[in-house]
Write a structure and sequence with these properties.
Layout (H helix, E strand, L loop, with lengths): L2 E5 L3 H13 L3 E4 L6 H8 L3 E5 L7 H9 L6 E5 L4 H9 L4 E4 L4 H16 L7 E4 L2 E4 L4 E4 L2 E4 L2 H11 L6 E2 H9 L7 H16 L8 E3 L3 E3 L2
Parallel strand pairs: 1-2, 1-3, 3-4, 4-5
Antiparallel strand pairs: 6-7, 7-8, 8-9, 10-12, 11-12
Keywords: DNA-binding, Phosphoprotein, Transcription, Transcription regulation
InterPro entries: CheY-like_superfamily, OmpR/PhoB-type_DNA-bd, Sig_transdc_resp-reg_receiver, WalR-like, WH-like_DNA-bd_sf
Organism: Sedimentibacter hydroxybenzoicus DSM 7310
Length: about 220
């Protein structure tokens, strides 16, 4: 069952969407506290977010940006603000689709199904990476070892994912920096060292000493 989170301040629309999508077998929740959208996101762990642009306190672009810091789940903007600038901004902020109010609820449902198929059909059963008892959860960006689970920061998670996707291979510092910051320019090389050191300390605290190995003059590896 896929989870859907609705971020819509018009409760009539939110309730109508929820009732309709429940009939299609989705698990649906909507946000009530518009100061803490990411809190509800983390609680519900949705597979897709339906996000209005005009919201109390912070607009949908803000919350799209906040969600993108922690997740790659599909985000569909739903808005009456249908001018090209809003649509372009929605896509540039990390949105995956945009549907204009008023909309046909059946068209919306079809779009949701298409987004979910694109996002999850090839990775429906790939939720984690495991190596020597270390489990990296790709859904909630946690790491588990010997029944101890730790939360990873965005950079922790990206480093671990890259290294565990390349078990037994050396990953260069430049490649890691590119993966973290999408650029190897204007980034102080020491910044990566600080990130690696912080992550190693976190791993050491749960018994994973030397899990990330340094290959001098080359980079880092797991395995």
């Amino acid at each position: 069952m896929y989870n859907i989170l609705i971020v819509e301040d018009d409760l009539t629309i939110a309730n109508t969407l929820k009732a309709h999508l429940l009939k299609w077998g989705y698990d649906v929740e909507y946000v009530k506290d518009f100061k803490n959208v990411t809190e509800k996101f983390n609680e519900h762990k949705p597979h897709i977010v339906l996000l209005d642009v005009m919201l109390p306190f912070f607009n949908g672009f803000h919350w799209c940006n906040e969600i993108r810091k922690i997740s790659k789940v599909p985000i569909m903007f739903i808005s009456s603000a249908s001018d090209n600038m809003n649509i372009v901004m929605a896509m540039n902020m990390g949105g995956d689709d945009f549907i204009v109010k008023p909309f046909d609820i059946n068209v919306l449902t079809a779009k949701i199904g298409a987004l979910l198929r694109r996002a999850y059909s090839l990775q429906e059963y790939i939720h984690e990476i495991e190596y020597n008892g270390v489990l990296l959860n790709l859904n909630d960006t946690t790491l588990t070892y010997n029944d101890t689970k730790i939360e990873l920061t965005k950079n922790d998670y990206r480093i671990m994912q890259l290294l565990m996707d390349n078990i037994g291979k050396v990953v260069s510092r430049e490649e890691i920096m590119q993966h973290l910051w999408e650029s190897d320019q204007f980034i102080d090389d020491n910044t990566l060292t600080v990130n690696i050191t912080r992550l190693r300390k976190k791993l050491s605290e749960i018994g994973l000493d030397n899990f990330i190995k340094t290959k001098k003059g080359m980079g880092y590896m797991v395995g």
